[in-house]
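re the bet — no i am not wrong, look at it urself. input seq straight from the record:
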Amino acid sequence: MSMVVGLLLLVLLIVFIAQNQVSVPLQYFGWSGSVGLGLALFMSAVAGGLVIAIVGVARIMQLRSTTATQRKKLDH
């Protein structure tokens, strides 16, 4: 079932990108060019997801470190 949902979302994403082919200028740290609007929005969504994932991993590592420190204090 989850594979069907994933494939459906992928098809919807492909349709979105295909329907938004208007070329837009893009500038990023000195790099400049133009890409389709759908692709630009997709790239920004992926970049945002990566930022959220990195922040989440950092927070989990912080909590694990705090928990380990607290357990060591309780053991002594």
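see?? Helices lie at 2-19, 37-75. told u. also The mean pLDDT is 91. so pay up
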